Structure formats: C-alpha cells, structure tokens
Design the sequence.
C-alpha cells in the first residue's frame, strides 16, 4: 500500500474515533445519568470496532454510538457497483460512526447519524452518510431548528449540498409499504468522491462538519423537550412509531441489510432497534389529535425551514 | 377460462374460506373471551380477502386468521420462476389462509400456519404452506406432541412427507444473523404439483389434512399451558423472543416480502407482528436457566418426536 492511501485511511479513522469519543461525552453530559458501555470486537476478515451502548439513561432509554474500521477482501457486488473489475480490486477499507438514540420521553425525538469512508484500495474511494430526525410528535419549531442546523453544516461547503441531500433523505428514509416517511428527514449523501471540482480534503471537511453538528443539534433538542410532561397516550403513540422505525430498519435500511448479509456483528448492527416497540392492527389516530397532525406531516418535500 | 380451472379455483377457495371459519370458532371456544373482528377488503387488481383479527383475548393477546383469494396479471418473477414465458401467461390466481397467534402467557407458544394454492391459468398450479411452532419456553413433551401431530397429518398421504417437510421447515424458519431457528420448526412445503405420481386431488387432500390439524393441535397446546403461572422473568424473555419473531418476519419471511413488494394490504400482511416486542443489547440468558435451555434448543435437525 502506498503512503498516501495508508495516511488517508488512518487520518479518517482517527477522526471518526475522536468523533465517537466527543459525541459520547456530550450525550452523557446532557443525559446526566446514563453512561456508555464499550465493547471492543474484532472482525475475522480484518479490523474491528468499538460499540458503545447506553441504556436506562435519564433521557436516552437505549442508544448506540458505534465506531468501526474494517478491511479485507471486498464484496463482489460493491466492486461491480463501482464499475470496477473484481479481478483487479483486492481490498477494501471502510470506517465510520453510526448512531441511533431512542429517548424514553415521547416528546424527545429519535435521532440517527451515520458518517462513513469507503475505499477499494487505490481504485476508488468515497464518503457517505447522513443525519435524520424522527420525532414521535412533530413540532414545527424543532423541525425548523434541526433543518437549519443541517443546512448550515452543508452551506459551509457547497450551496447545492443541502437541497440535494435533503431530497435524498426524503427519498431514502421512506417506508414504502406505509406510504409515509420515517420522520422529518434531514440529509443523506453517498459516493462523494473527487468529482465536480471537489478534492478529498473538501469532501472530508464536509463530513467533519456533519459529524460536528450532531452533538450541539441533538443536545439542544434534548434540552428543549426532556422535561416535558407526557401521558399514557404519548407513550402509546411513541411505541407504535418505534414499531415503524423497526420496520424501516429491518426492511429498507441499506446499512443494516449490508451488515447482516456480510456477516457483520449482529449486536452492533441491531443496536438501532428500540428497547420496546408496539404494533396494533389498523391503528388510526383520532381526528384532530396531535398524533394525527404528526402522521399528516410524514411526507416527502416539506420545506421545514420556511413552511414548518 | 375452461370449466375445470374455474371449478378447481372455486373448490379450493371455498374450502379455505370454510377452514378460516372453522379455525376462528375453535380458537374463540378455547380462548373463551376473545372474538375475531373481520375486515373485508378488495384488491385493486382483482379479488380480495377477509382479514380476521383477535386482540385482547384471555389466551391470545394478538392474532390474525386471514383468508384471501386474488387474481390478475401475474408478477413477472413468478412466471419466470415457474420456467414459463411471461408473454404467454396472462393471469394468476392465488388463495390461502394465513395465521399467526401471539398468546399473552409466555408459557403458551406462538403458532403460525399458511396453506395456499397458486395457479398461472392453465399453465401451472401448485400448493404450498406449513405450520411451525415458536415456544417462548421449549417443553419437550409439547414439542413431541406438536411434531407427532404434524407427522400424522403427513403420514396419511405419503411416508416421505414428514421427514422432507420437517427438514424444509428447519431450513426455512431460520434466523441466519442470529444463527438460531425461530422456534422448534414443524413442516414447510411448496410447489406441490401433479408430479411424482400425485394428482391434484392427492395434493389437495394433503393440504386439507394440514389445515384440519391446526385447531386440535393448537387447542391442546393452549389447554395445557394457558393456566400456567408466570413471572416477570418469563414475560421479559417472551418479549425478547418476540423481537426475534419480528426480525424473522421482516427480514426473511417470503410471504411478507412478496406481499409488501406487490402492494398487498399492509395491515393484513403485518398482522403477524406482536402487540409488544423488546430488544436488549447483547442479552444472554443466565447459565442453567430455562431461558438458556430454550436458546440451546433453537437449532436445526432436532428429532423432537424421539429425542425431545
């Protein structure tokens, strides 16, 4: 391996590792009670990860902030998808941070972030990732704040990033069989390479901005809502919305599917599932209820910053 | 359509419809409290179904006994899978009964049955289906009873059916990413056609035996266990095992996948999901506990009748 590839991999993995550290500290500070527990694991084919799980916090009921850096023989489908010849591509390297947090208070939203770097040796490399928010109860002022934060992270790097990646998130975080979005979206991006005038450093700088926006954004959303009073109706609706979250993650989420099919570490991958989830046959929220309002907002194309 | 195809379709659908009726009555009698609620629905492309849901029974917490009979333009993948030319196959017809029952008492097992008939007009037809049992707590005497019942239904028709279909169930009801079976298996079969000396009547008679074995088998399992005392530990384990059931149904179950991808009625398809399910990161049952015993038995190839 030449020096620059090795340097790049170390640089990115090191930064992701420090991001995990930073985010865990910030979340523990806002939660005030919960502490992350770390499991280190090795991947038989090469590399490994640090899975960090928090359960039973004051704000976070169950959540994970996972780091991994793995390498080895690339899955053939990945090489073919990159338009390369499997005979010539001998190795891959992938590193990233994945987060899903399920709060206990239904008025605090679920959040998800993934930032990742992938390369096929010298042949190709790209960044991908995103952040999306799943409020059990849509609050326009929180939705506006969240999307404004996402837009700010994007705008520092390219004026087209936010609108492109916001639409990508609307399309990606969609539960087709329910004809509803998972939540209020956010940003989603993939295959960010040295194209369209962007360098490796440009793309990496953008991914850093996304990663760094996570803690202040979610801490603010926790702060705003963690003391809110809630009742049995809120809890019931939260558990049903978590059921939808489970449906999305097990049926549509590409990272989950890729992870399980490639014999990834199951417990790390499925940390995204909530502690408790409910299903009720043909449940419909009452007309005019806050639950019905939220349901009506789970659609693509909402301009949360200006319309919300 | 010629007379015999039409007659055959009506004959099978009528029998499935009466099976649904029979099973619902039997389950209500054993439950003593719960009643099935019926929703009739139509499929835009042709046909429809009767979805019957029971919730909040004395024994059954949530369950469905669904009948459907649908027809229209066949999915191209199905035609190709049957080795036929999509240009020449203009229609399909499918009818069946699907059942999943989640009991509230953790000592009563979850049960699933599906029996179905499928044809591509005059070109091809087949039966498929199966019954499998998912005890939250494996009890060897119940497992022996269940498999003996399945074997008896098979043995009336062919001496090879049970061993073949038992192995098929072990392979099918398997949660690959957990390296464990969903439960103790049962029987699973598909593409039963007029081959190997069997006629349509032979295959239909077998499917009838399977369908008719359901109510007496599950009533006996309910009767044996419904009054059993249980504690918080049993309930906790039940909810975790239901989480696995959700994982199987959303990731591996072919009927669920086919139904959702072909724009089937989502609420009817997902009636298989429990009212409540839990996930806990890296949960391991205590050494020597009944939960650990059950976990150790969730594997392929157990001879439940003779070894159990």
Sequence:
């Amino acid at each position: 391996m030449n020096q620059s590839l090795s340097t790049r991999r170390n640089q990115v993995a090191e930064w992701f590792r420090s991001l995990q550290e930073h985010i865990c500290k910030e979340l523990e500070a806002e939660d005030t009670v919960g502490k992350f527990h770390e499991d280190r694991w090795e991947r038989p084919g090469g590399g490994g990860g640090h899975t960090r799980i928090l359960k039973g916090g004051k704000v976070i009921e169950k959540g994970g902030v996972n780091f991994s850096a793995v390498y080895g023989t690339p899955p053939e489908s990945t090489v073919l998808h990159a338009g390369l010849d499997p005979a010539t591509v001998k190795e891959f390297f992938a590193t990233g941070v994945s987060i899903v947090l399920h709060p206990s208070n239904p008025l605090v939203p679920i959040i998800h972030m993934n930032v990742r770097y992938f390369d096929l040796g010298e042949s190709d490399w790209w960044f991908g990732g995103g952040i999306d928010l799943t409020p059990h109860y849509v609050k326009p002022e929180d939705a506006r704040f969240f999307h404004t934060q996402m837009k700010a992270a994007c705008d520092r790097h390219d004026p087209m990033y936010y609108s492109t990646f916001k639409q990508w998130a609307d399309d990606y975080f969609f539960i087709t069989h329910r004809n509803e979005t998972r939540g209020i979206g956010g940003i989603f991006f993939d295959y960010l390479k040295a194209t369209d005038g962007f360098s490796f450093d440009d793309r990496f700088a953008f991914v850093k901005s996304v990663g760094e926006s996570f803690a202040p954004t979610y801490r603010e959303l926790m702060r705003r809502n963690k003391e809110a009073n809630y009742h049995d109706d809120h809890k019931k609706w939260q558990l049903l919305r978590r059921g939808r979250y489970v449906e999305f993650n097990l049926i549509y989420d590409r990272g989950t599917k890729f992870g399980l099919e490639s014999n990834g570490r199951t417990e790390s991958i499925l940390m995204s599932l909530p502690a408790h989830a409910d299903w009720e046959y043909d449940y419909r929220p009452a007309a005019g209820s806050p639950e019905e309002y939220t349901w009506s907002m789970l659609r693509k194309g909402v301009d949360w910053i200006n319309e919300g």
